[in-house]
Design goal:
The complex is a heterodimer of chains A (about 100) and B (about 325).
Chain A lengths: L21 H18 L5 E4 L7 E5 L4 E4 L2 H12 L8 H4 L3
Chain B lengths: L1 E7 L5 H11 L6 E6 L6 H4 L5 E6 L8 H16 L10 E5 L6 H10 L3 H4 L1 E10 L3 H7 L1 H9 L2 E5 L6 H14 L4 E6 L2 E3 L25 E6 L6 H15 L3 E10 L2 E8 L2 E2 L3 E3 L12 E6 L4 H12 L3
Parallel strand pairs in B: 1-4, 1-5, 2-3, 2-4, 5-6, 6-7
Antiparallel strand pairs in B: 7-8, 9-14, 10-11, 10-14, 11-12, 11-13
Helix pairs in contact in B: 6-7, 9-10
Chain lengths: ~100, ~325
């Protein structure tokens, strides 16, 4: 448990396991943001991670935004904001319209 | 601590196998937890060779006795945490499930528990398969199939009692249901060689989902080539599991990342913390950068297209 925020210390999300050094971690964060920025707009969302503060910033087109901790929360929050899950097998991602 | 889950259908030889391993000293340092659905435990009597053992009787750990199992595991963790740093600490737990248990919900419950997730890594799901009765169970029992689907390692027991042709057919069937699992044979717990099943025809199993409309579960092999980086892959897989976690039952494979070779595995929506595995020693032939996805309700090719789409975003 973190003494300042009362949040149980997270074990680190599994998606962050591929980088063990600080430069690798930073590269991975930028790359993650890059993929999210490309994938989310078709659902009316955008993502931003400038690596200045922890977490990923999710915004809707109307300008409201929220900060989430990891990818799992990205998808859960995106589902809440848009009303349906972001499905990678949706035709928009597999080329069949 | 590493947790090995030992499952298998009723009477498939789980205890016999475990007993032999203990006798050989293979799991001598492990804490053994035995779960029996019946009120009267028997198996613990057979497992006297283990130094530490606990019995969870009168309920199946994947459903009715799940809370009891979590409490028991927490007790073990607690005791381990109190071990003085100079003393030897417990490294391994072996959970022998009851024959009625689906290992999936047990693993999910442990991953979802806020305390246990920090103490326990599920290292392997071993499922014992009865060489004589397994085909009948696979034909008629959804549970028998779920156990096979979820296993990392299948141990076919009572090999000496089965006819070779029937055995080869069983092996081919098991390989079709779960191509990712390693299959080995055993007689009274000692490892024995299995016949080749390359020429055997797998049994075509009837659909057991009840309504007859649920599509069959099938494996898809995804090759992670140099155009697909780990970060894009993890973004894609996390989205896939969020959207399709009920259909994607198992994901497993080794991927190369900047941090090293990473063993990735999930059981339904739960992803195990990826483990960095050592470089292959000579003779080892594990395929790197190959992920097997086992599930239903989609086309295998769509998985590949979708992954390429995600990875191609630059």
């Amino acid at each position: 448990m973190c003494a300042s925020c009362g949040f149980p210390a997270a074990a680190g999300h599994w998606t962050e396991a591929g980088a063990s050094t600080a430069p690798d971690r930073l590269r991975a964060r930028f790359r993650r943001a890059e993929v999210l920025k490309a994938v989310l707009p078709s659902y009316g969302l955008t993502a931003h991670d400038g690596a200045q503060v922890p977490g990923i910033q999710l915004s809707t087109l109307s300008g409201s935004h929220t900060i989430v901790r990891d990818l799992e929360e990205v998808w859960a929050t995106a589902e809440k904001l848009t009303g349906s899950p972001i499905d990678p097998l949706d035709p928009r991602f597999i080329g069949g319209e | 601590m590493r947790l090995t889950v030992l499952g298998g259908y009723l009477g498939s030889g789980k205890t016999t196998w475990l007993r032999h391993q203990l006798h050989e000293g293979a799991l001598a340092d492990a804490f053994v937890v035995v779960n029996e659905a019946a009120e009267t435990p028997v198996d613990d009597v057979l497992l006297t060779r283990s130094s530490r053992i606990a019995v969870l009787a009168g309920g199946c750990a994947c459903c009715t006795a799940r809370a009891d199992l979590l409490t028991l595991l927490k007790g073990i963790c607690d005791e381990r945490s109190r071990t003085a740093s100079g003393d030897e600490r417990l490294q391994r737990i072996v959970l022998e499930t009851s024959g009625l248990a689906d290992p999936g919900p047990i693993v999910e419950a442990i991953r979802a528990d806020p305390i246990l997730v920090h103490h326990i890594v599920v290292s392997e799901i071993i499922v014992a398969i009865d060489a004589l009765h397994a085909l009948a169970q696979l034909r008629g029992e959804p549970l028998g199939r779920r156990q096979v689907e979820i296993a990392d390692r299948l141990i076919v027991t009572k090999v000496d009692a089965a006819e070779e042709a029937a055995l080869a057919r069983l092996l081919a069937t098991l390989h079709t249901i779960n191509p990712g699992a390693a299959i080995s044979g055993a007689v009274k717990g000692s490892e024995v060689a299995l016949p080749s099943w390359a020429d055997a025809e797998p049994e075509s199993l009837p659909d057991l989902s009840g309504d007859g409309e649920r599509p069959a579960i099938f494996p898809t092999k995804l090759v992670i080539d140099e155009t697909i980086d780990w970060t894009a892959f993890s973004v894609w897989l996390s989205a896939l599991l969020h959207a399709r976690g009920d259909d994607v039952m198992r994901v497993k494979g080794v991927v190369r990342t900047p941090a090293g070779r990473l063993l990735v595995q999930s059981v339904r929506k739960i992803v195990q913390s990826p483990e960095i595995v050592p470089e292959q020693v000579d003779g080892e032939r594990r395929e790197d950068n190959t992920i097997v996805v086992i599930g239903r309700g989609y086309r295998g090719d769509d998985l590949r297209k979708s992954l390429r789409h995600f990875a191609g975003q630059r």
